[in-house]
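note to self: dont lose this again. the chain is below, predicted strucutre after it. 327 aa total, dont forget to put it in the shared folder this time
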Amino acid sequence: MRHILSAALCATSVFASAHAADITMNLGWATPLESDNGIIATKFEELVETYSDGSIDVKLRCCAQIATEDDAFKAMQLGTVDAYLISQNNVSPHWPLMDVFVLPYIFQSTEHLLKVADGDVGQQMKERILADTGVTLLTFGGPSYRDFFNSDRPINTMADMDGLKIRVPKNEVMLKTFEAFGAEPVPLAWSETPTALQTGTIDGGDNGTNVIQEMKFFEFAPYLTILDHFSGFTPLLASGRFMDKLDDGQREAVMRAAQEAGEYHSEILSSATDKIRDWLVSEGGMQITRPDRADFIAAAQTVQQEIAAERGDDFAALVSDIQAVAD
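---
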């Protein structure tokens, strides 16, 4: 009897130990802790640890501590990085269908963008990226816009873009877009961008409005141009290796936390962009212009058509689905 009881207690102890074992999730991103990425990461950390009853410990790793944004997706596929916030254009080299969200002027408004991400198209994207790459897209996060900045001249028409050396992420859609706008795109990794701007290797670039403020690009490039040419997300992604460590309850906690952190992030960002633009002018000393967009949109539509024709039926179908949501 004693042996039976001892065995039962041992089994119970093993089960309890396994159930209570902490799992660490290292969550990385490339920008500072106080950035927009830091906002969603911090909220996600809080919610995961609450909903998992402390069985998952989220460690926040800002500033490219565990990987660069260019390398993070491949690292998640290999299982050497648990989770990372990656700009959608830096997901595309590893999963080309993400470029449907990168296409210039593909979204007509913030409302259109959110309807796409929260609807059938967004769900399709989550299912396909998991099936194709083994990486889980936990949440798209809140929407943002990339604003254009340069050190050379104010931009009042598309003709003013002529000849400007513009840093562009290593993304085909973005390269083609700035070529169509008349600039000279220079593909550079994010880690090289601040130095290139300071040394004059490039004249400017485009980034999320908040990134221009956080990275103090206004100190080297005083001309700010509002085009809203690229809009989208910085998705929160997790590796298959990490997700496979979770039991059903922990997985549910992670998915619930991601959804709520994404909603929270959307609320924060909804009013932030205009405030930051005002700050860049009043405190950052930038000169702001808002050109008529007709020529930019016409050039962008050519890029949309060219990319859709190159990428095949699945890509073209997603573009049509996105456009249908706005109708």
